[in-house]
Amino acid sequence: MLRAALTTALLAVLGLGAAVYARSNKTDDLNRVQGVRIASHLPCDGSTNPQEGLKLATTFSPGGWLRAFHLDAFESQFCKHVDLYFFCVMHGHDRWRHEWESVSQSSTSSAISWIDSCAAWGSKNAPDYILSGWYLEGEASKKLPWKQASLKKVSDAPEIFEFTDPNGGTARVEITRK
User: Fold this and answer.
1) Is residue 42 within 8 Å of 50, Cβ to Cβ?
2) Pairing between strand 129-136 and 66-75?
3) Could you state, in chain order, the average pLDDT of each consecutive group of 10 residues for the chain (178 residues)?
4) Strand, helix or coil at 31?
5) What is the largest CA-CA distance in the chain?
6) Does residue 132 belong to any structural domain of this protein?
7) Rg over CA atoms, the chain
8) What is d(CA 99, CA 16) in angstroms, rounded to the nearest whole number?
9) By CB atoms within 10 Å of each CB, which of 12, 102, 133, 157 scores lowest?
């Protein structure tokens, strides 16, 4: 009797959790075509997962709207709650996770981000990383959605990408591999 009551209560909690997740889950609006795929230059051998350091130096022109760069990593079936490496309470759906971000509130910034050569330990598949540019039309104080801009490759050595917002502000990111 107690076991049946506990099972019913557990199913009710799981059902409520699924309903809350479905209402709060929003789709990511990252457009892979407008962004640029970034991949590690280190080989993936299937038994280790070496990382490559990327020095990302951004420059934003004065004026224009608020602009930003994102480096996002694709996660498939990530663990949403209680990740014990051998057990996961609730798996999430596929998503893009922010690895790095730089916003135009300062004219320049520099940071190092580490990217994996393999999608997972024991895998020979390369992970998906997308570099994207974004701008916010109008004033930053209003709650407006960010819009994605198309990135253009300016140089191969060093790797330089840039975009211009519709108001004339430019943004540039230079990638140096470590």
Assistant:
1) yes
2) antiparallel
3) 48 36 43 85 82 92 89 78 67 76 82 86 83 86 85 92 92 92
4) coil
5) 71
6) yes
7) 20
8) 31
9) 157
d(C-alpha 51, C-alpha 82), whole Å: 26
> Is residue 93 included in any domain, yes or no?
yes
Residue 158: is the preceding peptide bond cis (ω within 30°)?
A: yes
Which neighbouring-strand residues pair with 114?
Answer: 53
Amino acid (one-letter) located at 46 = G
- 22 is a domain residue: no
Q: What is the pLDDT of residues 96-141, one digit of tens each?
A: 778 899 998 876 778 888 988 888 777 788 888 999 999 998 776 6
Contact 11, 18 (CB under 8 A): no
- For residue 12, tell me if it sits in a domain: no
Domain interval for residue 118: 27-177
pTM here?
Answer: 0.71
What whole-number distance in Å separates Cα of residue 77 and Cα of residue 166?
A: 37
How many domains does the chain fold into? 1
How far, in Å, CA of 72 to CA of 50, rounded? Answer: 18
CA 70 to chain centre: 7
- Both tokens of 12, joined, read 């009710």
Q: Please tell me the distance from the alpha carbon of residue 178 to that of residue 51, in angstroms, as a whole number.
A: 10
